[in-house]
Design goal:
The protein is α+β, with helices and mostly antiparallel strands. Helix content is 30%, strand content 28%. The strands form two sheets. A three-stranded mixed β-sheet has the order 3-5-4, with helices on one face. Strands 1-2 form a two-stranded antiparallel sheet. The mean pLDDT is 86.
């Protein structure tokens, strides 16, 4: 994967600009904590090495604070999986997907955070801390300014509705 992103090739004239662009490309893959370029002159020409420090692999994923949803449903929406390399961009998307899952179930105040617990060298446990909060209900919807269409007709077109007497059954 790394060599496919590098423009610099063996036998070409060394260019610091290209080396810098290659360094950024490798770092933007999201798999490395640190990337640097080392070069030295040799009788055959310039010897260039990209030195990378890998991010840890996810040894396990633990969920804390999950009561109202199934853990399997949460893990299913995530792209970060056990065995994958930690990628903070993907993890950020995963946290947004989990928040959205909670919003869809009425938990609009749910908070999701993460931390890592280093298990061995090169691996870490991903821990998701979830504060679900209370389920929120709509008590009243007021529509003002509508004169041509009745309030009840407008309410029937909304995706959200007021909590009724049988809401505990209908959801």
């Amino acid at each position: 994967i790394v060599l496919m992103r590098v423009r610099m090739q063996k036998g070409e004239v060394f260019s610091p600009e290209v080396a810098n662009q290659d360094l950024r490309e490798i770092f933007n893959l999201g798999y490395f904590e640190d990337v640097r370029v080392e070069s030295r002159d040799t009788p055959e020409g310039k010897h260039v090495v990209f030195v990378v420090e890998e991010k840890p692999r996810v040894a396990a994923i633990s969920l804390y604070g999950v009561d109202e949803l199934k853990e399997d449903d949460i893990l299913a929406v995530m792209n970060t999986k056990t065995g994958s390399v930690v990628n903070l961009r993907i993890l950020s998307d995963d946290l947004n997907k989990i928040r959205s899952l909670y919003r869809d179930k009425g938990y609009y105040l749910a908070e999701v955070s993460y931390r890592f617990d280093q298990t061995d060298r090169g691996t870490a446990r991903l821990i998701l801390d979830i504060k679900e909060g209370n389920k929120l209900y709509i008590r009243n919807i007021s529509i003002r300014g509508a004169s041509q269409i009745s309030e009840s007709d407008l309410k029937s077109e909304l995706a959200l509705s007021e909590r009724g007497f049988f809401s505990f059954i209908t959801g």
